[in-house]
Amino acid sequence: MPGHRWKVLPRKFYRRDPRAVAPELLNKLLVRDDGRAGRIVEVEAYCGSEDPAAHTFRGKTARNATMFGPAGHMYVYFTYGMHWCANAVCGEVGEGVGVLMRAIEPVAGIELMRAARPRAVRDRDLASGPARLTQAMGITGEFDGIDLVRNERGLRIVSDGTPPPVHAVAGPRIGISRGIEHPWRWHVPAHPHVSRK
DNA sequence: GTCCCGATTCCCT
DNA sequence: GGGAATCGGGACC
Fold first, then answer.
1. CB < 7 Å to strand B — which of 15-54 in chain A?
2. Hey, which of A40, A145, A161, A162 would disulfide with A27, CB 3.0 to 4.6 Å?
């Protein structure tokens, strides 16, 4: 992989409102040092104490502690008794805000992703969905709290120079029952690897 | 301690 | 479109 041409996103990129960070994460690359990499094509912002859909809405707990920590770290949580989901922590320490990565387009290490997701027949099913994404990339609870800026556990988010889409599609978030009025989901227009239309 | 349900996925109809 | 799988967090008694 031409890693030397990739720039790791700096801490300051994340130290902002997640609603500003989220659309700018589109077209960035989530990269593992085992060769797996994918282009981020769908994200959602979760906004702490002002957002009833956020895990952090009711304050800090053992489970969500990472979200209240420094920006640029990764919050990984377990849900539905079987799935992991991954977020980039944003904002300032104590805010409990971040961006859920919902879909990537596989761009490297696709054989490893296939091995991790043997049931996915089509490439577009490999990582189009928040739990599919973590399965394809091999992300589990062991990655909760890692510093993406420092490439901990070999995981990072980089730019290859591709800008975010000029007109990202915004709409309601998926799978939530409260806060549905907020258009805090963004995806690359007409991209086949987005989890839903 | 008990109970409900979730930032989901997959398979069946 | 509907339901099962599967279990821990968190609200509430």
1. 44, 46, 53-54
2. A162
